[in-house]
Amino acid sequence: MQRLLPINLVFPPAYAIFAFMIWKPFILNSNTARSEDIHQLYQSLTVAIGDAIKHRPFRDVCMRDTRGFYDIVAADTTDAEFAAMLELNGLDMHLKSMAFVPLRARLFLNAIIDCKMPNSAFTQDDGNMVSGHSESKALRAETSKLLDKLVCALDTLQPAKFHWQWVELRLLLNEQALIDKIENHDMSIVDAIRSSSPSSERATPSESEKVFIEIILTRLLVRPDAAPLFSEVVHLFGRSLEDSMLMQAKWFLGGLDVLLGRKTVRQRLSNIAENKNLSTKSQFWKPWGWSYSGVDPVTNGGEKRKSEVTSLEEGEVIEEGMESKGCVKGSTQVDIEGSGISQQHVTEKAFIELVIPCIDQSSADSHNTFASDLIKQFNTIEQQINSVTRGVSKQTGTASSGIEGPTNKINNRKGIRGGSPGLAKRTPAPVESAPPPSPAALRASMSLRLQFIVRLLPIICADGEPSARSMRNMLASVILRLLGSRVVHEDVDLSSNLAQLKRDMELMPVVASTEMSGDSLFDRLLLVLHGLLSSCKPSWLKSKDAKDFSGFDREAVEGLQV
């Protein structure tokens, strides 16, 4: 019977009592709270809140409707009112901040999950507040831990615990925003608290939310299986974060290294994680209610064989891309390379599964901008293909430069022995230019972007711009030119051309999206072109649930020909 009570009836009283408990040092140190009655009241409240957080029906009510739980917490004004009271008492800013960091809501959530009251971070055994210097030090320590807590929370997302894990992530972001406003902005503690809980329909994301988007992208390296959960987190956080994710994906795909296939999605995400000092080491634990069918057996087999061959000592770690110093047989090396390609494919698939729902749920301006930028990216790839095709004959004429290389090296050595550094400077070694992207890399780049183009086709076909500038006509024009290019038209069979595969792997370890999908890139581009040039609206343009999306939907694209 108790479990049937609404959360807005049972939660507010317990949350108010919890506030009295964690703010006890500030209340008892005031001049108006020295009587024995206050201490007796706190003893009674301690027993009451202790029983409440251990009471199973109460915990079930709170955990059953976590969206309502967060809405009540975000709308509660008690924190701001208590902060205003502390400001009237003239307390130091760092002293006041200790009452709200960690956030009361996050402490309460942890108390419900752990079935016990949290240890107070700002009290001593006698109940008195610690010194201001220690409080400032504790605030800085809490700030440094927030990033690690966000990363850990994302790495441990599980479907069975997701109903409260997303609330924990949201409260961690709110706490990070509060600390940022206190330390880096000229803002009162009251205003900082009122602005730290964002509206779900806010126009622009905060700086902490932008950093959070980058963290989510890097977590695809560690938890590619959790991409749908990451996407659901972004959706629950509101429209502004969905738009931010889409713009971040636009920036990510628009980078020249990823656009021209010089780097895979996995490599670029690894660069971002390295710049942010974020760990990409996989964490292993027994999952809660998670059965991921997308785990690639090639990856698992390759990793197993790699560990068997290299004979790792206990605790030793081999990072991705590091060659084994031991004796590795040729067949094992092929397995490891195949495992690397499979890992890249899994990461790319996770990236698609993360971004696709954001396309469906973002604002009209965001997905229109994303669609327009993807068309520009296709145009850039088409221009690159033309430049590579025109440069084939020029590359054969530069073969003579390889003959002059040894001569230059001899002259350099003579100049150094002759004691005249000027001679060596007048004959510098030729600077090697970056090799052009391989055809396989360009095909993989187009195949990746085609996943998003297919999802955006209803928007592209509905573009109301004049015919010369409409996204529909621009995309059709680019695809028509691509269909006539040799890079797209030729059907490369990598399984029968190992030499070409090895050369392409040396230039850029491609994600073989085109080859793995079972359909040639030419066929898929042709299907999209048919849909763009069709005079009637294909039936497949009806929106699909994001959960039903998995990679490239051939049936949906074939419907374009109707």
Automatic annotation (TrEMBL):
Comp. bias (Polar residues): 389-401
Stretches the record annotates as Disordered: 389-438
Protein name as it appears in the record: Uncharacterized protein
Organism: Gossypium harknessii
